[in-house]
Amino acid sequence: MTSPEERPGRRALVIVSFAVYLVLLAWVVLWKLEVPWIGDAARLVRPVKLVPFVSDGDAGASAPIELLINLVLFVPLGLFVGALAPAWSWWRAGLVALGVSLALEVVQHLISTGSFDTSDLIVNTAGALVGWAIFAAVRRRAGERAPSVMRSVCVTVAGLALVAVVAFVASPLHYGPQRDVVVERSTSG
């Protein structure tokens, strides 16, 4: 007989909440909550920023507020990984976070809604690891109640994210028309 904590319906609620979070995360990262689009520069070869946290010849350093936002956006990923795979170690959760972040970076670069930046990979993964550390602390503190507590946390996070997105979309605040991410290179003769 399964305990109330192991009922499939309760796990399904976390899975649905995770799916909602992932859709919202993709929408925020790829289109900044604007109408999805593909830029004209998607067919052009564009630079990839491989050196994190500093400006290079093609791209400037990431703004501290942008790094903080990325960190916060990925904390729920670590919470969900912990809730859905509680036996995993921190490094496994980190690999999942790195994979999700890498996928989003590649897609935004390919569709020209952003550029590939290794700073984002590092910060996004760190954010998810912060979430996983919160999960680990809850697990230590809550003991047998940890699955119930984490389920509540995950469903609440997804619900709050959904409310925030609806509020943003309904508000007059918007980023304005997006521009293709193209780096102009000067030609020296």
From TrEMBL:
Pfam families: VanZ
InterPro entries from the UniProt entry: Teicoplanin_resist-assoc, VanZ-like
Membrane spanning stretches: 12-30, 67-88, 95-115, 121-138, 150-170
Location of the VanZ-like domain: 18-137
Record keywords, A-Z: Membrane, Transmembrane, Transmembrane helix
Origin superkingdom: Bacteria
Protein name from the UniProt record: VanZ family protein
Organism whose genome encodes this protein: Microbacterium jejuense
